[in-house]
Amino acid sequence: MLIIFGFRERSIDYAALIMPISLLIIGYGIIKFDFLEIRTLARETIFENNLVGMVVLGPGQRVIDFNDAAEKFFNSLNITLDNYPIEHILKKEPKLLEIFNSKVTRDFSLVIEGEERFFEIDAVPLGNPHNGTDKMLKSIRDVTEVRKIQEKLKVLATIDSLSGLFNRAEFMNLAQKEFVWSKRQHKNFSLLMMDLDCFKAINDTFGHAAGDEVIREMGRLIMSNFRKTDIAGRIGGEEFALVLKNASLKEAMKAAEQFRKIVAEKKVIYGKQEINFTVSIGVATICFDNNDSSNIEELLKKADDALYKAKAKGRNCVAI
To answer: Pairing between strand 136-142 and 115-125?
Structure first.
């Protein structure tokens, strides 16, 4: 019929038909439901109520805006935020100013109300950075709880829970690093291998809980009678090891003998029971020179052999 009356088949542009209708719907939505206002309101709400402190800096690093969390952070430092350049606001806090002026993420800690708190400051350019914008959003995040969790995980991974000393893996890691450094610096490196005498008999006589208390006491004695710079670890059930940094053989022997006497005089009170215990100690020392090719495994073997000598001599003694 269309052909008879001279009409030709033509394709219909549906996009052209739908576009006016779509614009009408969008316009109606903006007017009726305030879509643009809702978007702006949502952004303002996120900014104002965010637990992360936010500071907007404009030209000349002048503070343009900030949220409640940022104000709380600065108030805790007795600093008032206002419409001044950040350099003026932080003129009495040069370290914080240097961190605030950085354009990369920075970590720092502050003592607030007697407690050390940890923070991260991020910098986010506002606008197109390629156009040379000098507007910046600074976010201040309190990461104290995260740090505490990380520290707890680190302790669990590196510390022996019973003795409070490094566990075997961490001790070997630190001992190896110290060995390499001592070798490079041509320093003395001494190693003590210690074993509680007749520990099985303690467990059998007094019980494993009492044996655990002896291990704890041994850890406390090691921590309180050697230098803070020395490296101590529990490397087995009743076995302990200690790196004495830059100590000669004579100094290591003296330290080992003094500690042996301290242990022999110590008593652990468990319930109503009094537990005496002693320790045997093997000592090995290396004095590095330019041609030395020794490694940590060889020194550990020497200290272990010395420990067996001490055991063979009747225990409660020191051997090399």
So the answer is: antiparallel
User: pLDDT tens across 252-277, in order?
Assistant: 999 999 999 999 999 999 988 899 99
Q: Are residues 135 and 249 in the same domain?
A: no
- Give the HSE-up count for residue 206: Cα atoms under 13 Å, Cβ half-sphere: 21
- Which of 302, 283, 117, 279 is CA-nearest to residue 214? 279
**CB 194: neighbour CB atoms within 10 A?**
27
Contact 86, 57 (CB under 8 A): yes
Q: In the structure encoding, which two tokens stand for residue 146, read together?
A: 């995260």
Is 34 domain-assigned? no
Q: Does the model's pTM come out above 0.90?
A: no
Burial track 224-245 (b if 16+ CB lie within 10 A, e otherwise): eebeeebbbbbbeebbbbbbbe
Same domain flag for 164 and 281: yes
Kindly give the parts of the chain with pLDDT less than 70: 1-43, 128-133, 290-293
Q: Which residues participate in catalysis according to the annotation?
A: 238
Can you give the pLDDT at residue 5? 44
Distances (CA, A) of 65 to 47, 54, 138: 10, 8, 11
